[in-house]
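Example S7 (structure tokens).
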């Protein structure tokens, strides 16, 4: 089951004696040893290993500050390409995903992780807030050892990807980066931390359910449901879960449908059959044609009939040269193409519209000039 998850953020209690970096980070004084022993402060913990915050006691022999053995720095940078970042990406893809040089090419890296959202600054409640795509770079003694790719949105920090060097694989950078990104969301007043898709059958994604409270997006109603024990039980017996439909159909978390379920009327049985067929019986392994978005039974994707009736594809604006835009219906061959034939341009654009929805279709411009 694929869905999206988000974590609600709550600021931990703070004992503040010094304000750093524009008032965004509050660090307890070192004298609060009793408090530190009995409390965990997220923002304090994630920042205290940074080189500029490591205590430097005075050496009684020469009365000079004792320098730390290593320098650890974390910087939020623009998502621009560098050879250093690419070398780390290539190393990670090879050792973790077993990809060859052709798969982890520079072009792939630039397209995948260096061409995100445009960057901007806005004022939110009197504080500067960064927006756009960024690289959170972790450097040890000046060497790039890990990098998180983030989308900073008005209401959330979205975790896109993480790469790290095998030399630091035992440092649990997945957890370390998640804690730092949650702290960034708190400090930047982004409200939510978005962990991306969650596939319950994928063992590598199970770490996401360790962060609580978390919520899953219902792809039928676009509402959020708490990811609790009941939800996880349903994910364990279904390929697809929509809590809104589960509640409507009064389904048990134990099985798909059993004799002890409450009796449904005729309309309820039809809804149940549709739910089971579209979400829990259809799969690639059972022979469903998944070569296009319409036949793959993907949750949240508009049907072809909905695209025809709601998307107004012909009114979608397209950029055909540097200074020229027009509506798709103005293209000479547009009336001759069949929307149900997914090979010509109209069919391809219909699939894109099904994924975006009619609202974004009206706002976006297709760029054919590139």
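Recovered sequence:
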């Amino acid at each position: 089951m694929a869905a999206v998850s988000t974590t609600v953020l709550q600021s931990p209690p703070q004992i503040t004696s010094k304000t750093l970096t524009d008032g965004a980070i509050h660090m307890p004084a070192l004298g609060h040893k009793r408090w530190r022993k009995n409390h965990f402060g997220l923002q304090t913990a994630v920042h205290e290993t940074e080189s500029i915050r490591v205590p430097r006691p005075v050496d009684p022999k020469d009365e000079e500050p004792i320098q730390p053995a290593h320098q650890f720095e974390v910087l939020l940078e623009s998502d621009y390409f560098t050879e250093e970042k690419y070398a780390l990406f290539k190393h990670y893809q090879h050792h973790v995903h077993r990809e060859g040089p052709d798969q982890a090419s520079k072009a792939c890296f630039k397209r995948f992780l260096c061409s995100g959202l445009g960057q901007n600054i806005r004022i939110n409640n009197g504080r500067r807030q960064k927006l756009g795509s960024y690289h959170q770079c972790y450097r040890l003694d000046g060497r790039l050892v890990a990098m998180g790719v983030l989308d900073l949105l008005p209401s959330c920090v979205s975790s896109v990807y993480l790469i790290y060097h095998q030399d630091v694989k035992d440092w649990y950078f997945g957890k370390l980066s998640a804690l730092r990104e949650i702290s960034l969301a708190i400090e930047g007043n982004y409200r939510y931390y978005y962990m991306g898709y969650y596939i319950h059958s994928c063992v590598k994604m199970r770490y996401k359910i360790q962060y609580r409270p978390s919520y899953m997006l219902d792809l039928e109603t676009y509402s959020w449901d708490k990811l609790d024990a009941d939800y996880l039980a349903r994910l364990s017996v279904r390929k697809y879960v929509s809590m809104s439909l589960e509640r409507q159909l009064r389904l048990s978390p134990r099985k798909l449908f059993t004799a002890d379920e409450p009796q449904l009327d005729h309309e309820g049985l039809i809804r149940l059959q549709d739910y089971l067929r579209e979400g829990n019986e259809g799969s690639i392994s059972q022979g469903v044609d998944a070569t296009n978005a319409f036949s793959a039974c993907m949750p949240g994707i508009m049907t072809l009939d909905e695209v025809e009736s709601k998307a107004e594809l012909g009114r979608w604006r397209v950029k055909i040269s540097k200074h020229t835009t027009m509506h798709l219906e103005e293209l000479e061959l547009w009336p001759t193409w069949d929307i149900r034939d997914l090979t010509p341009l109209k069919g391809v654009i219909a699939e894109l519209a099904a994924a975006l929805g009619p609202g974004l279709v009206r706002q976006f411009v297709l760029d054919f000039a590139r």
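Notes on this example. The chain has eleven helices and 14 strands.
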